[in-house]
Amino acid sequence: MKTEMFDLSGKRAVVTGANTGIGQGIAVALARSGADIVAVGRSSMSETEDLVRASGRSFKAIPADLLTLEPVERVVSEASAEGRVDILVNNAGIIRRADALDFTEADWDDVMNVNLKSVFFLTQAFTRRMLADKGGGKVINIASLLSFQGGIRIPSYTASKSGLAGLTRLLACEWAAKGINVNAIAPGYFATNNTQALRDDPDRSTQILARIPAGRWGDPSDLGGAAVFLASAASDYVHGIVLPVDGGWLAR
Question: What was the pLDDT predicted at 143?
């Protein structure tokens, strides 16, 4: 049941990478709290649309590949065409795995472009509109445990997510007094496409599960509460945090 503090009725949220996994889980959670959803993604978002509409909220899909900045202005224009965007969730991200000694420039650039560069410029473009009418706004970046730790075999992912944590704090410092809340969620090990390779490796999966106090991989729905909190009036005095949702991983 919604309470006034967490009620997102009348708000419009843009969620990137909303076709599946974490993005889908967040989009559905925001919709169930009353927000209308604009989903941005590279592939079909029909499943997410069905779940959002089942919650009684409107849904708009914008196909876009954030590997480059080319679609940024179009995404902002299309997302804003039917009303003000109040919430931006920067979830779209990619990962490439290889030993640091073998890592290629292409894999470095692709991950940094999607996970950090496009996030900054998309946020910049949406925030310009939020500031223009002085209506405030909420920006939620999806960071990672690798914003805190090094990991192995994912150098560009670790660099991008560490950079995203820093960027979250910088933008919070610049925009907090202007009515824009910028925060991040750091998911732990979740059952998504990005972790398929880890879950398919019996030894690695066993090692990971042994480290998680909750004793299980996260489900995308587990992120819903944190997302609603950071998108709602409940977090109006929260700026620049990176909130782990990790089953206790960082506590161990």
Answer: 98
What's the CA gap between 15 and 38, in Å, rounded?
A: 6
Q: What pTM was computed for the model?
A: 0.96
How would DSSP label each residue in the chain?
A: ---GGG--TT-EEEEETTTSHHHHHHHHHHHHTT-EEEEEESS--HHHHHHHHHTT--EEEEE--TTSSTTHHHHHHHHHTTS---EEEE---------GGG--HHHHHHHHIIIIIHHHHHHHHHHHHHHHTT--EEEEEE--GGGTS--SS-HHHHHHHHHHHHHHHHHHHHHGGGTEEEEEEEE-SBSSGGGHHHHT-HHHHHHHHHH-TT-SPBPGGGGHHHHHHHHSGGGTT--S-EEEESTTGGG-
**189 an active-site residue?**
no
pLDDT band at 138 (very low <50, low <70, confident <90, very high): very high
> Which CATH fold topology does 4-242 show?
Rossmann fold (3.40.50)
pLDDT digits (tens, 9 = 90+) for 233-247: 999 999 999 999 999
184: left (phi over 0), alpha (psi -120 to 50) or beta: beta
Catalytic residue (one of 157, 175, 189, 217): 157
